[in-house]
Design a protein that fits this description.
By secondary structure, this protein is an all-alpha fold. Helices cover about 70% and strands about 0% of the residues. The chain contains 15 helices and 4 strands. The strands form 2 sheets. A two-stranded antiparallel ribbon has the order 1-2. β3 and β4 form a beta hairpin. α6 packs antiparallel against α13, α7 packs antiparallel against α8 and α12 runs parallel beside α14. The longest helix has about 35 residues. It is globular and about 65 Å long.
Amino acid sequence: MTKVLANIKGDKVIWAVAALLALFSFLPVYSASSNLAYLYGDGDTFSFLIKHFAHLVLGFLIMYGVHKIPYNYFKGLSIIMIPVIVILLLVTMAQNTTIEGANASRWIRLPFVGVTFQTSTLAAVVLMAYVARYLSKIKNEVVSFKETVLPLWVPVFLILMLILPANFSTAAILFSMVIMLVFLGGYPLKYISVILGTGCIVLVFFILFAKAFPGMFPNRVDTWVSRIENFADDKDTQEDYQIERAKIAIARGGVIGTGPGKSVQRNFLPQSSSDFIYAIIIEEWGFLGGVFLMLLYLLLLFRLVIVAHKSDDIFGKLLVIGVGLPIVFQALINMAVAVELFPVTGQTLPLISSGGTSIWMTCLAIGIVLSVSSKREAIIEEELMREKEENPLEVLREVYE
């Protein structure tokens, strides 16, 4: 263990935030999983805790392994992975079964191990790395919109269209993150406006197509419309059940909460261990616990900006923002949904909610960020060694001290 810790590189604050989030997650996941234990198990919540522990262990192993890879390698890997992602999304879409009552077109079951995997989350990380690579390639170059369509926007819209039918919220968030990244990468604003208009047109045509042929995408468009209408309407309906229960949980929490494991709404709130775990956290830990959790994500955002600013090349800067910012953005959306500041989206709370895919892909993204920051540390260490070689008296002074 000591040897492993000695080999840990990269931003130590990011490591600490990730570890704190993971450690904090055990209590709310153990508490909130009681609903799932009685619905899909024999009432034993301990098995869900063990499963969550296994997911986190594998996630941190992914983070450790990825942060050892030089981040420039992700340029080539993103190109290789784009066709792989397209194939995985096509296979995932082809499924018509359900997993624990959910639409299986979001998940694919891995052969031999029997583990379900949400391919859209991997697609998001790969696509952001791919966009960062392309933007770094055309930086300081004058390119026409036509030149960028095939290498940049065709892969983006292809992946988004494969995600959209089953997971509108993920597609919308991913599109927003791509637009944010190309804006920060210096892509011309007039081209961005064209892409935004194209995206709106494609979405309208998709909705019209789904309405005309409801058998192609059963219930998906109706679900989106219903969620938006319920959010905009002040009237309480049956579709508002989740958010109403979440608000009750938050109200019961007050300032200091009811105490760990003493949530009542966990037994009534669907997805209490994943999509609405923030409401359970506030119920048990109160307003103070909710603010503390939010500050951890904001601290992560602050360190992401620091790492991006200190990176020595444009690819490193864009890569950190591209794969790191969606983590904080997703966390804020999850919190906003719980307090009814945003329509229900189905987005989990990174490193807190139960669910292997979410944890693993978050750890993958953090590992990439740490790879960028570790490169900067290596450069600083080389500079210090060079200075010591040039100033042997300084080395003797350090030995004496």
